[in-house]
Amino acid sequence: MLAQMLFRPNSGNVNTLKDIGLTLGVLSVLLSSLSYADQSNNHLPPVRFLDLTSEQPFSHRYTGGWEHFVGGGVAAFDCNNDAAPDLYIAGGESPAKLLVNSGNKKIRFDHKPHSSTDLYAVTGAYPIDIDSDGIIDLAVLRAGENVLLKGLGNCQFVRANESWKYVASDRWTTAFSATWESKAAGPTLVFGNYVDRQNEAGPFGACDKHELYRMQNRVFKKPMLLAPGFCTLSILFSDWNRQGKADLRISNDRHYYLHDGHDQLWQMQDQPTLYTETEGWQTFKIWGMGIASRDITGDGLPDYLLTSMSDQKFQVLKRGAQGPEYKDEAFKRGMIAHRPYFGDEGRPSTAWHAQFGDVNNDGTNDLFIAKGNVDQMPGLAIKDPNNLLLQDEPGIFYEVGRQAGIADVERSRGAALEDFNGDGLLDLVVVNRRAVFRVYQNVSETSGKWIGVKLQQKGNNTHAIGAWIAVKRDGNIQYREVTIGGGHAGGSLLPQHFGLGHTGTVQIQVTWPDQTTSKWQEFASGKVWTILK
Fold first, then answer.
1. Alpha-carbon distances, residue 459 vs 12, 42, 137, 464 (angstroms)
2. Which residue of 292, 343, 407, 485 could cross-link 385, Cys pair, CB 3.0 to 4.6 Å?
3. Residue ranges of the chain whose pLDDT lies below 50
């Protein structure tokens, strides 16, 4: 068959060189797919997770029809200030759940029922301190009216739409991000919307606009609409070139925007504008599902993993670029993750939430990707295992999901890769569509040292969103941007976890959101440190 593809005769006006180039591209993908399932690296320490789902005193599924084919996010945060991360998980047509961390060495969550949090039609949620009172609030995304929940402490919440004058629409919201703009009175919130359900000509070609909210006198002004929208499933405020302010990256789903859409980058100013090709932005079309951000290349700038159907994209800013001009390094680095890595499924994968984190504390960031069919799409894999890609020192990623014990083949959506029992190892929770919510504890016997960094500042923006943390060990520096957004319909607001390998003492420097920079300070590994401004 390959010979027929390579040497088939041209017909009509087919461009020979273009045809050969396309064929070689197909051949490259086919050859890569032959070896993908056999990825391994014996030099990487073994990683093992223990499935504790059956030991949880609750059961949860993300359920529903078309409006809940997407979404299914989870928010990870500490709602009672006990240093044990809690969760808020979307339920779709089932009620959402607030889960309080009640475990010690073994992870355990208890459902805390309340009418304010047991909401229906929830697609996702993000933790954020909106009013800067030091207590975490929640932005709850819904197929319908979104809800802002004000945190009262001790994992209690109250609806705050009216008191904060947050006027929500009836749109289908699937994405969220927040930033604190310079001299702003409060956070800038953007709710990313999917298909316009009121458009009778839809759903194809009927993508909705997005809503941007700014604060004035401690309440929200009337929202500004960002258009065009191209059926968005993930957005992220990020300072992509370390200019001291965040712009808004948007990943869009080509399944519904059809011909005119593409991924976008909004330049933030009083009236935001889209970056254009003349400014360096290269438009591209993917089935955009999620965004994960981390400096993987070590240049001090954020790189972006974009999940999609079939292959993933890993965008790295071109060296010396004057604008947002990126190159894709997913294939080069082993991050393409384009089809199931075991079983007899030859069809492409569908990827959703992605998150970087050092699961073996060797000093390099690894990558988790949640996978799962939209519902019953016949051209895509049905049994589609989640990925856990370990990074080696040269920056190449290797699949270890099956060996690690996290290769669930249900329809996964949102996830959180965080330390839920305080032992310095990143654990994992995964939301599944029409299947049980999974809880995995990292029980790896071989791992390096670690440190946690929690930023805190007085006044506005208590968690220092937009800050950069630099951790220096053995002459190498890890850079980390503190953000709210991205992922798939959920994210975390917790101490930043750094694996350190064999290093017991590190130096840390913080560039705060106002661009003031702290002095390098020395910290010991093995605990979470709070750094104050």
1. 69, 49, 16, 10
2. 407
3. 1-38
Nearest-5° angle of CA 315, CA 319, CA 323?
75
Query: How many distinct helices (H) and strands (E) make up the chain?
Result: 4, 39
Rounded to the nearest angstrom, the gap between the alpha carbon of residue 52 and the centroid of all alpha carbons in its chain is 23
Give the pLDDT of residue 36: 47
pTM for this prediction: 0.92
- DSSP secondary structure code for residue 360 in this structure: T
Give long-range contacts, CB 8 A cutoff, 24+ apart: 375-380.
Answer: 375/69, 375/411, 375/433, 377/350, 379/347, 379/348, 380/309, 380/347, 380/348, 380/349, 380/350
C-beta atoms surrounding 383 within 10 Å = 16
| Helix, strand, or coil (residue 376) | coil
Beta carbons within 10 angstroms of residue 223's beta carbon: 19
DSSP characters for 419-476? -SSSSSS-EEEEEEETSB-EEEEE--SS--EEEEEEEE-SSS-TT-TT-EEEEEETTE
pLDDT of residue 42: 54
Residue 87 neighbours by CB under 8 Å, 6+ apart: 74, 75, 76, 97, 98, 99, 101, 109, 416, 429
The beta-carbon contacts of 32-40 under 8 Å, at least 24 apart in sequence, are 32/331, 32/336, 32/338, 33/338, 33/339, 33/346, 36/336, 36/338, 36/339, 36/341, 36/399, 37/340, 37/341, 37/342, 39/334, 39/341, 39/398, 39/399, 40/398, 40/399, 40/400
